[in-house]
Amino acid sequence: MHQRNRKIEGVILRKTNYGEADLILTILTKEDGRLDCIAKGARRFKSRFSGRLGLFNQVQLELFEGRSLHAVNEAELIDVTTNWDGDLEGSSVAFLLAEITQKLLQPDQIIPGVYPLLMATIALLAENREPENILYAYFIQLFGLLGFMPSWQHCVLCDEKLNLDRSVHLDADSLSLHCRSCDSSGTPLQTSLIKAIHFIQSYPLPESLKLDLEDERDALWSWLTRVLADLLNQPIRSLAFVEQLRSV
Ligand SMILES: [Zn+2]
């Protein structure tokens, strides 16, 4: 098999210890989507990668393309995107973003827009402005990029034009909107919640953060956790921590 070196730019989403001294890295790359690679000897005291492979670091990596896992030859630090000394809320939100992004994207799956969205979000988090709102904006926009968000115009079942000023039903599994005559089961989502989600999806960061979410926070949180549970169908480790901070 033809093997070659290749340079990528990306941000480190996950680090897993492997063997005695290696690290498996999950990178969200600028151009090639999610990519997993191995940094051999990275956990040694005098590693050539020392200090560069921190979580959320923006890096340029030279990879040797192996048969299964790419190996990191060289790592250059582009930017340390985070500086949350003592910012518990910002850092726990960042961990949640990294964990979910890494779980939602398949290896080598390329979705344009995810990398700039994540970088913009991390930069906003580092400014320490309302991490919870940034969290909602990120996920709603990510779901949009992944094609998960509903059509806001029509009921997916009968194609009737939807009036977002009246209550509509949001099906959490498919994230699709139903009109009242098609779906009278359960509790319809509050109009204000639907409108908040729609607003956030309609504007890029940071414009989407201009909405005052004070009254919608609890509804957004339960909506988001339900959607994530349905999408991932596996435990989300960093969710409990953010949940704890919310209730303080
Ligand atoms: Zn309908």
- Helix count, per DSSP? 6
The count of strands amounts to: 7
Overall 3D form = elongated
Percent in strands:
15-25%
Descriptive account of the structure:
- This protein is 33% helix and 21% strand.
- The protein is α+β, with helices and mostly antiparallel strands.
- It is elongated.
Would you kindly provide a brief summary of this structure?
Helix content is 33%, strand content 21%.
Main features:
about 250 residues; alpha+beta; OB fold (Dihydrolipoamide Acetyltransferase, E2P); de novo design (two linked rop proteins); 2 domains; two-stranded antiparallel sheet; 6 helices; about 20% strand; binds zinc ion
Q: What order do the helices and strands come in, and which of them pair?
A:
Layout: E1 5-18, E2 22-29, E3 34-39, E4 57-64, E5 70-80, H1 88-104, H2 114-126, H3 131-145, E6 169-171, E7 176-178, H4 191-202, H5 217-232, H6 239-246
Parallel strand pairs: 3-5
Antiparallel strand pairs: 1-2, 1-4, 2-3, 4-5, 6-7
This protein binds zinc ion (ZN).
